[in-house]
Design brief:
alpha/beta; about 40% helix; 16 strands; three-stranded antiparallel beta sheet; globular
Length: about 450
């Protein structure tokens, strides 16, 4: 499959041809760009059709030869490969531990219903449950050596004593099991202090700091339990952590809603504060004044373009930073199987609730229809695993002709189910954003590469 797209960087138009199957990106001039659209029957504007009609026939003949050579080399219009149609089940590599179904913030858009996961009890995980979860992971990890545990909530720092006990226990089990644990935590930063920062820096492989960008944006939708604004405290604590963290893995993760469609300003504000690893995600909610609708998409796509231009500029200065959705490695990125199968939810990756219940991922937690078992009996419902094993992009007809299919894996299973009605049907609003983010990632990769080689 061939895809053609453009990106304007400081009024200069860059044109690209992307071969979906081989992963080859071609930076071409406008004439070759138009020829590709005609040759591969791609959508064209009336202006592009008029411009193509003006191209000299000799030039078209030369392009025909060049494109034929690229096709013969396997880097253009490559045939679809023989890809897997199921995820592997039977070996678990990662658990998301819901340390508590409680939170010290009341974020309006929270998918977990303010940390409760739609339960009546704000339950806290005990040391016993946490240790059983570690035992369960080891027992079901097969030949895998590296295991991952993510401490999640609610707000996991509200149950830090248990988090520390679980880490200590896992370190003990490492020696006798021959496994190696990598821990991560997602925190809203409210409870970060010097002692906690030091411990997290020592023990966590990665830490996700939850901040929504500018102060006015954050405070508009993320209040403390008492209804007061908390941005200044969160920002101060997060910055202290980032300074201590140095070159170790972390990133700031925010959410944009219909209230801040100028979210590029939030990314840049976080960078101005001193953060260099940033992600801002579109909200997924049905709350009327916050939800993203199809009417918002044109403005959102333009905003991603604005962000991409600023991104390239800043990465040439002392304000260099990574934006999660613009990071792409065309040479040594994730293997194809990983890109086809996605996050591994329900198969390689599971979530454990405070009482020990096992679910396909953190977004399915406490959903009775997707209850898979309990860490105390150590068994899981493989029928549910088999459903998730089939939930990959090669089994989704709506994804067959999408240029981004090998990079989004057909979208988030939970979002697809909740907002498109089926895990097998992609949530179309997220699809449009994903496609433009991938185009921009490719353009950034090409532009930065050309500048480095010039």
């Amino acid at each position: 499959m061939v895809h053609a797209f453009s990106f304007n960087y400081h009024s200069r138009a860059y044109h690209f041809i992307w071969d979906n199957e081989s992963g080859s990106l071609h930076n071409v001039d406008y004439v070759a760009f138009l020829y590709a659209k005609v040759k591969y029957d791609l959508p064209m504007s009336q202006q592009e059709k008029n411009d193509f009609d003006k191209i000299d026939k000799q030039e078209i003949y030369q392009l025909e030869e060049e494109f034929t050579q690229l096709e013969q080399a396997g880097v253009l219009n490559s045939p679809c490969g023989d890809y897997p149609t199921s995820k592997r089940i039977g070996e678990i590599k990662a658990l998301c531990l819901h340390i508590c179904n409680d939170c010290n913030l009341r974020c309006r858009y929270c998918f977990a219903d303010e940390g409760t996961y739609h339960t009546t009890e704000r339950a806290y995980m005990s040391e016993e449950v946490g240790k059983k979860a570690i035992d369960f992971l080891i027992a079901n990890s097969g030949k895998r050596h590296n295991l991952e545990v993510d401490f999640f909530g609610g707000e996991p720092l509200m149950n830090l004593k248990v988090v520390k006990a679980i880490v200590e226990y896992a370190r003990q089990r490492e020696k006798e099991s021959g496994k190696e644990f990598h821990f991560t935590m997602t925190t809203n930063c409210v409870l970060l202090n010097d002692e906690t920062i030091k411990w997290l820096n020592d023990e966590m492989y990665n830490v996700v700091l939850s901040i929504d960008g500018r102060e006015c944006v954050h405070n508009a939708v993320r209040k403390a339990v008492n209804g007061k604004d908390c941005y200044s405290l969160i920002a101060k604590n997060a910055l202290n952590f980032a300074k201590v963290r140095g070159n170790k893995s972390y990133y700031v993760r925010g959410t944009f809603t219909a209230k801040n469609l100028d979210f590029a300003s939030d990314v840049l504000a976080l960078n101005d504060m001193g953060f260099d690893q940033i992600s801002i995600e579109p909200v997924v909610t049905e709350i009327e004044d916050l939800k993203i609708t199809k009417e918002h998409i044109p403005a959102i796509l333009k905003e991603y373009d604005r962000l991409a231009e600023n991104y390239i500029d800043r990465r040439k200065t002392d304000k260099w930073f990574n934006f999660f959705h613009f990071m792409i490695d065309l040479e040594g990125g994730p293997c194809l199987v990983k890109r086809l199968t996605g996050c591994g939810s329900g198969c390689e990756y599971l979530a454990v609730t405070p009482t020990g219940g096992i679910y396909p991922c953190h977004q399915f937690a406490e959903n009775k229809d997707y209850y898979m078992g309990n860490v105390f009996d150590g068994k899981i419902n493989l029928d549910i695993s088999k459903k998730f094993a089939k939930n990959i992009v090669t089994n989704k007809p709506d994804c067959a002709n999408c240029m981004a299919k090998y990079y989004c894996s057909g979208g988030c299973a939970a979002n697809n189910l909740n907002y498109a009605g089926s895990m097998d049907k992609p949530y179309d609003i997220s699809c449009e954003m994903m496609r433009r983010r991938l185009e921009l990632s490719l353009a950034i990769n090409a532009i930065e590469g050309a500048e480095q080689n010039s």
